[in-house]
Amino acid sequence: MVSTTSPRAEAWSGYVPKLFTLLYRGYSWGTFQSDLLAGLTVATIALPLALALAIASGTTPERGLFTAIVAGFLTSLFGGSRFQIGGPTGAFVIVIFNVIQKFGYEGLVVTTLMAGAILIVAGIAGLGTIIRYVPHPVISGFTAGIGILIMVGQVKDFFGLTCAVPAEFLDKMKVYGEHIGQAVPQAWILALGTLIVTLWIRKKRPTMPAFIITIIGSTAIAVICKLSVETIGSRFGSIPSALPYPSLPSLSLAGMADMLPAALTIAFLAGVESLLSATIADSMTGTRHRPNCELIAQGIANIGSVIFGGIPATGALARTAANIRSGGKTPVAGMLHAVFLLLFMKVLAPLAVWVPLCVLAATLVVVAWNMIELDHVIHVARTSRSDLAVFLITFLLTLVSDVTIAVSFGALVAVLLFTGRMITLAESQYKNKGSFEIEQEADQDDAFNALKVPKRVRVVYLSGPFFFGVASTVNDLLARTDTAPKVIVLELSAVPFIDATGFHTLTTFVKSSYRSGVPVLVAGVTDKRTTRLFTYLFTQVLEKQPIDHYLFDNLDQALVRAQEISASL
């Protein structure tokens, strides 16, 4: 069937939220029941994680709930994925912690508002299809690094330590080494038991909400046995049972300029993680998400989150996968998950103050271990040494520096290594397999007779992308000749593109040949930009007229002209 949709309408369809499309097609009672059950299941998983991630980020636990509710609802309402569940994630923990340490919570709000605006602009500009191409070793490197940082950050609460802990990774490890002897047995035994039971449930009973079961059970043990452990209530006080009124911080251009690097980091992480989560959801269900719409939704969700007292959010892979496995069919499941969290907050907020911090620390250790994804690390290590180098550089910089530097430098190294591999591969092909092969003259090569190549006409065949990495190799081949030809023909039909360096090499060769009295003809150019450049070279620089005497659609036409020139010389 031939589509009657106009190209413009088809382009704009990539910005329509999945919810609107699916509701337009029809929404049944049976689908609602599936979404309802999935929303409830995901909410039980999200509740303890929201509390734990907010505490690990250096803020109060209720802000994690605000984020899961508001960002979770908006992500599903405006998102480009059928199954995406939005909320706080481990990827943001270190970034949020550092921003709060430097600018305070109000600074985090301003930073996240800027990040939300960046995401919306990126989505409108169509960058959703580009941001997905971040090299996998870079993503694995900073994700594993953040997982280690989260795990190390839980040592204090896991062991019940009371010492002051610095923000830097190496300094933190030094302090832990000096104070580990002060660990509280009641805290670390309870935390260790929580960790073991959680891992057992996740392995043996994967459909059960392991986090909520172990947190409730461990909290009950702590209360009944009157264990001397620090709790949410003893450190943070009570948790509100309702969302706060929306509010905006005071904004100053000077302050916003200082926060821009952090805003870019938050936007990048939110974009990459949400698109990665949506892509994996597609692979699990056979559907296709709308990446630009998803970026816009993440921008709206982050703005909404901090307006209601939350923290940065993105698509949460584990919760999205749980939504799919629980039978979620549409974005309504994600919206219901937010509604259930709001109900949980109203009912369970007075009880949350009894949850031990060591138990939440054990929960986050599991989350951090899952972020490391050891099987992915092994896969990267087995792929190639260059991919392993990118992974290790990104991983180590994440530990000792920050995510912005780690991701930027890791991506730069990945690009340089990839370029080096392409150059090596291209040069090997050119030298060993005949690519960019320069044939002998017609009177010395019988193969040319079949092509009716006139004598003393040299045909230079180039094939493959002609970019800066192979310019020197091609230049050497262009300069190599056994006898002086009367005419040279450059055959470029197998060259998909020529970059600035490549064209400069050809320009230098053509100008040099004309100065030596050897005309150069060009045949088979398929790229319009390259055609314009050669037209300018012949008509403006070399002042050759008309252009169709020097620039030809195919080799046969060029050889006819070469015969005319050769006969006249």
Condensed summary:
With 569 residues, the chain is mainly alpha-helical. 66% of the residues lie in helices and 4% in strands.
How would you sum up this structure, described in words?
The structure is a single chain. The protein has about 575 residues and is mainly alpha-helical. The protein has 2 domains: about 10-375, no CATH class; about 440-569, 2-Layer Sandwich (Transcription Regulator spoIIAA). It is built from 24 helices and 6 strands. The protein has helices at about 5-10, 20-25, 30-55, 60-80, 95-125, 135-155, 155-160, 170-180, 185-205, 210-225, 230-235, 255-285, 290-305, 315-325, 330-350, 355-370, 375-385, 385-400, 405-430, 445-450, 470-480, 500-515, 530-540, 555-569; strands at about 85, 315, 455-465, 485-495, 520-525, 550. The protein has a 4-stranded parallel β-sheet, with helices on both faces. A two-stranded antiparallel ribbon has the order 1-2. Helix 23 links the parallel strand 5 (about 520-525) and strand 6. Helix 4 (about 60-80) runs antiparallel to helix 15 and helix 6 (about 135-155) runs parallel beside helix 18. The longest helix has about 35 residues, at about 255-285. Residues about 430-450 have low confidence and may be disordered.
